[in-house]
Design goal:
Helices cover about 30% and strands about 20% of the residues. The protein is an alpha/beta fold. It has a seven-stranded mixed sheet. Strands 19-18-17-16-15-14-28 form a seven-stranded mixed sheet, with helices on both faces. Strands 20-21-24-25-26-27 form a six-stranded mixed sheet. Helix 1 (about 15-25) runs antiparallel to helix 13, helix 8 crosses helix 9 (about 305-315) and helix 11 (about 400-420) packs parallel to helix 12. Its EC number is 3.1.26.11.
Length: about 750
């Protein structure tokens, strides 16, 4: 959707692909033209999508031109004739065939057959016969052309289960691709390479191994969820920053999951012949043309990035970082956590009573994505994982790649556990960078809890999100229940139960002030007043379920409130239940507020009053306030001002524009209770008192990065200015104080 015209994209896929893409149109930019080319019978009706007159088992030809022919063979799981395949069970084998290469023309043979050099040579090479110039004979192409070279054939096989593997043995249209030594079957095509997307549990099965042996001398590339590829990161830029931050402050930046001691079990695929089976690696290639280079190409496989290498380079680049790391450790020691870096703007604030003797297994905020709009080299899009440990977890927004981020943070097994205990996903608005990871997370949760007694996940989001998820569920069950954000406002919660005595006294719910006064029409700021409200009566059963789930997680409230961004855009308040301190006295639970995307607004301030933590978007630097207004986002200072006006204890800035690749432009004078978010940052409630004190150390860690980026900009503007040491120092400080 970039630009006024966007791009035209053709998407091929089986059966009900069109339903999914139609649902996605609610958040795909209008400029992006997506054309679906679905093939095969629809699983939701009896009408085939294309090729209705062709025999059932014939391949679907998708592309056929002078460059390539691509066909699709549908693969259903092996089942009894009475039972019908369910949505999402159909897989595809794609066949890629390149045209044959004609043999070389032999001019000596042509001359011997009485041909004069000239146009007839070209006619013969095009495959047509000609009359000899000096003999009374017809010269055929085969008389003067060498043997042609068959075009390479590649199969891309998705065989997700052993039931599919049983079926693949009997697919009639595959027979022409089988080849055996010392025999030449008429019409048989030699397959050069087969890329197996199937998991190891399938490719290692006797059935699948038997099928693989039918392709004599084909190169098998096993690319199905290879766990060994998780051992070393492919996203080197973000992994390097994560490792550097971990070295500086492991308390807020735990070791990434791909370098964790758990490592990987050796469940790599093995086939009938080690020489023919290769475990896929990132950026491994198989060359098809030119024919002389046919085969595997490992030249682009990146060198492995290890944490020891990253840290060695860091210490060489910034030797003093070793001492800063020791200073950071001491921030957690001593009764007063004395500052090791003297910063006048870092004042001490009173620790709220809700953090009195708080346990480390109370709550942890894990920032999985801290960038805006689209993923960059260093920041993924929005996702905040609220870890309540043994009591469960909640996701606040879930942009694309969130499951991958969980794996990078926790490792493979840890990510599965994080998904398994997920009870609720809350989505702020319908923009794609905030929700396109939801379906994948829910599908993985369903897989992990299969056969285990559990409750469906509760998804709270804007109404258009339900349309997309409902369409997706025609293809794959997501095991979820949906609640409109407008059904989780304070007004809606008030209709669930009679007001408590304290609410009667104050006249509002949850003690949140006039924003949450009963009876007020809770709408998105940008929603027309005439728009219909959600029918709360139909939502009551789901509200009761959500209330029960919140109680099990030790939470008292999950309250959505409208913000200024787009239609049906919301922020959210999470409040923990009261608990007893060591003396046995009741103390309030913590309160966390997440802004989603918004301009500063009274609703945001009201909702944040007295919050322990405010996670607020800060898309733009202060100098770009006009752009922030146009796009309904906030600047860093505006976000901090919201928290200051509401008396928030700690502010976490996130959702930075990707124009700030590593660290945003900030004004340190406002940062006394504020911290910048990075991907994989994990903030335990027990560490909140230290949070702002870590900010000055970022200045050291990113010192060289700052100089380089500023230096590039100033080189363009500078003519004859002297580049002395003072200028370099000025550039370092000006980055932070703007």
């Amino acid at each position: 959707g970039i630009g006024d015209e966007g791009l035209s994209v053709n998407v091929w896929g089986p059966s009900d692909l069109k339903y999914l893409v139609n649902a996605m149109r609610s958040f795909i930019p209008r400029a992006a033209m997506v054309h679906t080319r679905s093939f095969g019978p629809s699983l939701n009706d009896s009408t085939p999508q294309s090729g209705s007159s062709k025999p059932k088992d014939d391949p679907f030809v998708l592309v056929d031109d002078e460059v390539v022919k691509i066909s699709a063979i549908l693969l259903e799981p092996n089942r009894s004739e009475e039972s019908r395949s369910k949505p999402g069970e159909t897989s595809v084998i794609y066949v890629c065939e390149l045209p044959e290469i004609n043999g070389k023309f032999d001019p000596k043979k042509a001359m011997a057959l009485g041909l004069r050099a000239g146009p007839k040579y070209g006619i013969l090479q095009s495959g047509q016969s000609v009359k000899s110039d000096f003999k009374d004979i017809t010269v055929h192409p085969s008389d003067v052309m060498g043997p042609s070279v068959p075009g390479p054939v590649v199969l891309l096989v998705d065989c997700p289960t052993e039931s599919h593997a049983e079926e693949v043995l009997s697919v009639p249209s595959m027979k022409s691709y089988y080849s055996c030594p010392n025999s030449s079957t008429d019409g048989a095509k030699f397959v050069n390479c087969i890329i197996h997307l199937s998991p190891a549990s399938v490719t290692n099965s006797p059935t699948y191994q038997t099928w693989m042996t039918r392709f004599h001398s084909a190169q098998h590339i096993l690319a199905g969820h290879e766990t060994k590829n998780m051992e070393f990161p492919i996203l080197k830029a973000s992994s390097t920053i994560t490792a550097r931050l971990n070295y500086l402050c492991p308390q807020f930046f735990p070791a990434p999951g791909f370098w964790s001691p758990q490592h990987v079990n050796n469940n790599s695929c093995v086939g009938s012949s080690p020489d023919e089976n290769i475990s896929a690696e990132n950026l491994l290639k198989f060359t098809l043309r030119p024919h002389g280079n046919l085969g595997l190409d490992r030249s682009c496989i990146p060198s492995q990035l290890t944490s020891s290498r990253v840290i060695s380079e860091l210490l060489s680049e910034i030797p003093e970082i070793r001492g800063k790391t020791e200073e950071v450790k001491r921030l957690w020691n001593g009764p007063h956590n004395k500052m090791m870096i003297e910063e006048p703007w870092l004042g001490e604030s009173i620790v709220p009573s809700c953090l009195e003797n708080v346990r480390r297994d109370d709550m942890e905020i894990v920032l999985l994505g801290t960038g805006s709009s689209q993923p960059s080299k260093y920041r993924n899009v929005s996702a905040v994982y609220i870890d309540l440990f043994s009591r469960g977890s909640i996701l606040l927004d879930c942009g694309e790649g969130t499951l991958g981020q969980l794996k990078r943070r926790y490792g493979l097994e840890g990510a599965d556990e994080a998904v398994r205990k997920l009870k609720c996903i809350w989505i702020s608005h319908i923009h794609a960078d905030h929700h396109t990871g939801v379906a994948r997370i829910l599908a993985r949760r369903r897989e992990l809890l299969k056969g285990v007694s559990h409750e469906p996940a509760i998804v709270v989001g804007p109404r258009p999100l339900k349309n997309f998820l409902d369409a997706y569920q025609r293809l794959e069950d997501l095991d979820m229940e949906f609640l409109d954000c407008r059904s989780t406002t304070a007004t809606s919660w008030a209709s669930l139960e009679p007001p408590t005595s304290s609410e009667k006294t104050t006249g509002n719910g949850s003690g949140e002030g006039s924003l949450f006064s009963k009876g007020s029409p809770m709408q998105s700021i940008h929603k027309r007043p005439s728009s219909p409200m959600t029918d709360n009566s139909s939502a009551l059963p789901y509200l009761k379920k959500l209330k029960k789930v919140l109680g099990e997680m030790g939470l008292e409230d999950l309250i959505s409130f409208p913000v200024v961004h787009c239609p049906q855009a919301f922020g959210v308040v999470l409040k923990a239940a009261e608990r007893k301190n060591i003396a046995g006295d009741e103390i309030p639970g913590w309160k966390m507020v997440y802004s989603g995307d918004t301009r500063p607004c009274p609703q945001m301030v009201e909702a944040s009053k007295g919050a322990t933590v405010l996670i607020h978007e800060a898309t733009f630097e202060d100098a770009l306030v006009e752009e922030a207004v146009v796009k309904n986002h906030s600047t860093t200072k505006e976000a901090i001002d919201v928290g200051s006006s509401a008396g928030v204890y700690r502010i976490i800035l996130t959702h930075f524009s990707q124009r700030y690749p590593k660290i945003p432009v900030i004004d340190e004078s406002h940062m006394h209770n504020t911290c910048i978010a990075f991907d994989m940052m994990s903030i335990n409630m027990a560490d909140l008192h230290v949070l702002p004190k870590i900010v000055p150390y970022f200045k050291t860690l990113f010192r060289n990065v700052v100089v380089e980026e500023e230096d590039e900009e100033e080189e363009e503007e500078r003519d004859d200015e002297d580049d002395d040491d003072g200028l370099v120092r000025d550039k370092v400080s000006s980055f932070f104080i703007n």
